[in-house]
Amino acid sequence: MRRIRNLIGTLLLCLAPAPLLAAGTGEVTFIHVGDIHGHLIPRPNMREGDVTEGQMVGGLAYMYDEIQQIRKRHPNALLINTGDTVQGSAEALYTSGQALVDILNLFKIDAFVPGNWDYLYGTQRFRELFAGDKPLANWHALSANLYYSTLYEFPDTPYANQAGRRVLPPYMIKDVNGVRVGIIGLTADRGPQAVSTHVMDGFTMTPGEYELRAAIPLLRKKHHVDLVVLISERGLGPNLELADHIPGVDVVLSSDMHEETMHALVSKKNGTILFEEGQDGTLVGELTVKVVNGKMVSHQFEAHHITTKVNKPDPVIARKIEEIRSSFVKGPLFRPHSNPINGAVLRTPIDTVIGFTKTALHRSNFSDAKHNPAVIEGSSHDFLADAFRYGCHSDLGVVRGFRYGTHVAPGPIKLEDIYHFIPIGPQIGCGKISGDDIRWMLERGADYSLSSYVGWWGGGWILAFSGLTYDLDPGNEYGDRVSNIRIGNMPIDMEKYYSVGGYWYVDNPNMINRHKALQISVLKDADGGVLDGSDIVAHYLMMLPDHTVNTETGRVHLLKPLPAPIGKSKEIQPLAGVQRPDY
Description:
The strands form 9 sheets. The chain has a 6-stranded mixed beta sheet with strand order 7-8-10-11-13-12, covered by helices on one side. Strands 5-4-1-14-15 form a 5-stranded mixed beta sheet, covered by helices on one side. It has a 5-stranded mixed beta sheet with strand order 22-19-26-21-29. Helices cover about 20% and strands about 25% of the residues. Strand 12 and strand 13 form a beta hairpin.
């Protein structure tokens, strides 16, 4: 009988609910990087009015110096990378992202969420880098809103056995300084927009709202976390909407729109802290939050500019960068490289000077800039559109607006600068597009950047044209923003077909710059071989007098100023898309 009573007692103990974990109290520090875009070494900052204008900024060895300084102050700090990492340079492109993996594997990253450009090399390469039990990148990739396509969505999926499952874990839990931290990942809700439509074959993304709503109570109630952190590559504006409409998130580490939040935003509705780190590794965010009895009670945020003036290159990271770049730059170890996207061969060291510029080439000016606010226009994009127009001897050149890129100071232009502008493997196609289609290309581009509906933003800026000017009213609605379109100083003829040069991909042979065109021919070398878009730009520079470009901007005339940015940041977005009080 005693044995039976003991057995029953044991069973009752097993069936009794587990005791609740004590709510945590302590401090947690987050080190945030994002939108590195393949930049290994420092670049100049030519952004007008910036505090580091004219300085050399970024560079992974210099970034790591700052990270290590923060770790000395906060030994248990969590290093978070929020995506768009393995694309943006020749070194990244020609190694399908491996160059960045080899360097950043030394950083001891605690959590990573992929950005849309991290899918550039296709889904199989993505899986090699980030998914499975032994991914090449040891960054602990997360995403709650990335799935293998179902057979209904994509009957030809190469991942039929995984159909409908998540590609990556949706969240992780870390115990830091007595605080239980739940980290949820949301990747982008779109793949790369300027390349082949086949890049995302077999993968499906969702906006992430449903997954976030489901994850928060799971972490809070089942896993008893004290702090919920969202790492998201959906952009500051969309992330701010999520934070306002879905309670329960304490901190959002954001990427995508390349905002520099020198002062963290705070959601007025739910008290969520949000911030973002610009691009190219030029900024590192440091956030320390204090948690008392399972609730965040205070925070301290600091954005650290990474400059060669303030930071010193970490010797281990610097040696690794030198080793990786040795086969790309002048010297005995240089070798040809094959482009994984279009098959073109790199036969010229990327540190070769291929021309000169009289004006700074970039697309980064603040939203209140008097000339060329970046969401509207930039000298780098005008320069590229000019090159494509020249290569095709066409009426127009066109290039999609994009946030990644580099800055080139007045003076020499190196081949690697062009790869920072065009690191996505396009060829250049020459074709014909009607005036009416061109007008709607302009309207759609403006709407994707200036719509009052944040979820509609397309992730890029307004596309750039060569040979075309127009007026733009940012306050009008879709279909009525663009007026006074002129081509060759003549009003546009909606019924006429104009010759156009721009991005072309073999997977979409009837499109230029992802737009349907007629009578397309593709620029080739003298032997009929493949030419990368960077080759066309280099040839354009060679043909200019003194190999020197002096790009004329002002092709878009703003009829009204852009809406005021949120809070103290003079960033490009969010603009009017977020109708809220001052953050």
